[in-house]
């Protein structure tokens, strides 16, 4: 698989990143199958894996640690995150030790602050992250769910390194990041790691929803109106191109400079299907059709 440059770093990683929240959720997938799924993704060319200390309370990291033990560590790019309630200086250091142990590795490639915490000074977290960088425990410092002002502020407190990525909610429908933070990141050559790339499946017309997602999807169903035309447009573009809807929505992301798409799957056929989002491009006319269809969807966060 052709790797993609990761912003200002000298790294190249797979344009698709394997997510792992589900791998830390035993009601969705058991440990042995999760290990197999991760190993299969790596064998098929995905070298970047996204996890967090909070996924399954560390279980996701533990499973990844087991899964990657049969591969060369330097061929992989492991991303994990420190939780919102561990952002005091000493807590960051402690949390990283836990992640290193569970991942069974001596370094984390990219260590993200999972969510900003407005009760902890940004400087304090940034200094702790930089210490981990200086000690070689993490290769790059990154953020997740950080707005433009908070991202700027965080960068001001780093002196030896810079923010190497921001992981954000971004897909064909949810494009808020395009207003402010993404243009800034593109100017600064800082990559965006997009989560919710498939909208948990609802963007591609998937009807059945896992119990574990139910609350999330219900919340969305109350504030997203008129989604059907977008799902139909994605599906008809897919048909014309001989692709699948999942491939269209993933391609929409990975065709952009400095944007990487995170997805999660428990199934080998979905994994292979998602890999088929690489190596081709949507036509300009497809992009315009998607833009038009998105305009028809209404998102009302105050809907009840
Ligand atoms: N930084 C953050 O705050 C944050 C927030 C949310 C998520 N994340 C990261 O992003 C990862 C992905 O989470 P997400 O919320 O973005 O979920 P997602 O990947 O958009 O959706 C996952 C769902 O899509 C289904 N799926 C995958 N490929 C499919 C295909 N080709 N056809 C039909 N269904 C398909 C999976 O079911 P099957 O198992 O049946 O394929 C699963 O139910 C997480 O694991 C996590 O690593 C980060």
UniProtKB/TrEMBL annotation:
One of its GO terms (molecular function) is oxidoreductase activity. SUPFAM superfamilies: NAD(P)-linked oxidoreductase. Residues 15-294 form the NADP-dependent oxidoreductase domain. Coiled coil: none annotated. It comes from the Archaea. It holds the Pfam family Aldo_ket_red. This is Oxidoreductase. The lineage of its organism: Archaea, Thermoproteota, Thermoprotei, Sulfolobales, Sulfolobaceae.
């Amino acid at each position: 698989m052709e790797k993609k440059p990761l912003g200002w770093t000298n790294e190249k990683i797979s344009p698709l990143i394997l997510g792992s929240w589900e791998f830390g959720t035993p009601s969705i997938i058991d440990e042995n199958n999760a290990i197999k799924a991760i190993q299969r993704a790596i064998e098929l060319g995905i070298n970047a894996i996204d996890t967090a200390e909070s996924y399954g309370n560390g279980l996701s990291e533990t499973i990844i640690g087991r899964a990657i033990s049969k591969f060369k560590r330097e061929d992989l790019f492991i991303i994990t995150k420190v939780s919102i309630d561990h952002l005091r200086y000493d807590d960051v250091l402690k949390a990283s030790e836990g992640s290193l142990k569970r991942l069974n590795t001596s370094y984390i490639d990219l260590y993200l602050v999972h969510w900003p915490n407005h009760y902890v000074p940004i400087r304090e977290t940034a200094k702790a992250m930089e210490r981990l960088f200086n000690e070689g425990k993490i290769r790059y410092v990154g953020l997740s769910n950080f707005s433009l002002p908070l991202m700027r502020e965080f960068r001001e407190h780093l002196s030896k390194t810079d923010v190497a990525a921001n992981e954000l909610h971004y897909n064909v429908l949810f494009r808020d990041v395009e207003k402010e933070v993404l243009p800034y990141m593109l100017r600064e050559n800082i990559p965006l790691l997009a989560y919710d790339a498939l909208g948990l499946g609802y963007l591609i017309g998937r009807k059945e929803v896992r119990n574990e997602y139910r609350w999330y999807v219900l919340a969305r169903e109350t504030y997203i109106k008129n989604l059907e035309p977008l799902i139909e447009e994605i599906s008809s573009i897919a048909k014309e191109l001989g692709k699948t809807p999942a491939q269209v929505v993933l391609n929409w992301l990975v065709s952009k400079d400095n944007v990487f798409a995170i997805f999660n799957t428990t199934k080998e056929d979905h994994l292979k299907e998602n890999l088929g989002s690489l190596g081709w491009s949507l036509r300009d006319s497809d992009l315009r059709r998607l833009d038009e269809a998105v305009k028809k969807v209404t998102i009302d966060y105050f809907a009840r």
